[in-house]
Specification:
The protein is mainly alpha-helical. It has a single domain, classed as Ammonium transporter AmtB like domains (Ammonium transporter fold, Orthogonal Bundle), CATH 1.10.3430. The protein is built from 15 helices and two strands. It has a two-stranded antiparallel ribbon.
Amino acid sequence: MSSGDTAWVLTATALVLFMTPGLAFFYGGMVRAKHVLAMLMQNVFAMGLIGVLWVLVGFSLAFGRYGDGGFIGGFEYIGLRNVGAAPLAGMTIPFILFATYQMTFAIITPALITGATADRLKFGGYAVFIGLWMVFVYAPVAHWVFAGGWLAQRGALDFAGGTVVHVNAGAAALAVVLVVGRRANWPREAMPPHSLPLTMLGTGILWFGWFGFNAGSALAANGVAAQAAMNTTIAASAAMLGWLAIERAKDGHATTLGAASGAVAGLVAITPCAGYVNTLSALLIGFLTGGVCFLAISLKFRFGYDDALDVIGVHLVGGLFGSVLLGLFATKAVNAAGADGLFFGGGMHLLGEQCLAVGVTLVFSFVVSFALAKAIHATMGLRVSEDDEHEGLDLSLHAETAYAFGEFGSMGRIR
């Protein structure tokens, strides 16, 4: 047991949990004012539901039978039974802290989906979906990669969640969007963000929390964590520049929304790479990802799927791009527990395993998410009525409004 490692992972756990309200602000600023509380609620609610499910069953399904090379964990940790203060073999932190840290990843991953489905999800249907999704999609994929499952045993690398978090959530977002359909009047009607300052605030919180996400995944206060911290911020910085350069060249303006989106795209792409690549590689990965994700967000207009806040264009594409680039830029000089990529003398093996991991995760998540969404939509319903959508989800679902104007307060008319 290391007190220094324990103190750092305790801090990282708090940082990652803080990312979920940061995500709520990031998304909340981009929706119209009549939907902002519904967006905040969907994100914050994940902290409640997924936290409880993680303790009861999720952690056991994801991390039971640790290192078995299989497809799903066991039941030995149900209710966190047998998860105590002693470290797991090979770790220097309490096992209960590892479970808590991984819980924060499980919370934010389904919350990412909400940006794609903004303005049109029933709250009850959403709650059922993310609960089932955590059990049937997130837990198996986390076992494959994070817990020594079959992809990890084959040699696939994912330092902090490129496949487990971003490709997984992005593929699910695409599936749910195809089930619930487009927002009313999209794309004919312009639906601009109602508060870009909120989005910029959310960006700052996400960037801050991402140090826990990436550097915390070293599970120790060591050189790998330090390199991951540097890679995290330089990739975000470079991706912002890459996004804005193409945005300015294409549209004539460098926008605040572009700066925020570019930074997040870089954070997404460096997530699988953070503890495996050097600083210059991280800079290049970030810069390339900024441009690629800017171009990717236009795909929704070409193919007609309504990805409201560009989850697919940023998280799916960014996570996929970063995971594949890891097969090129990984180097054991940064992390001896990793591998050498193609550009560092490792040949094609790692690149092939990265492509396999991305492809399998994308297909599995899309298929199972589509089936879950279809089943919920056919039974209790997953989409609000058109009248509720026009009124705004804040009032129609939660009987509240985000902003008080004149005689109206946040709970309706002042009496």
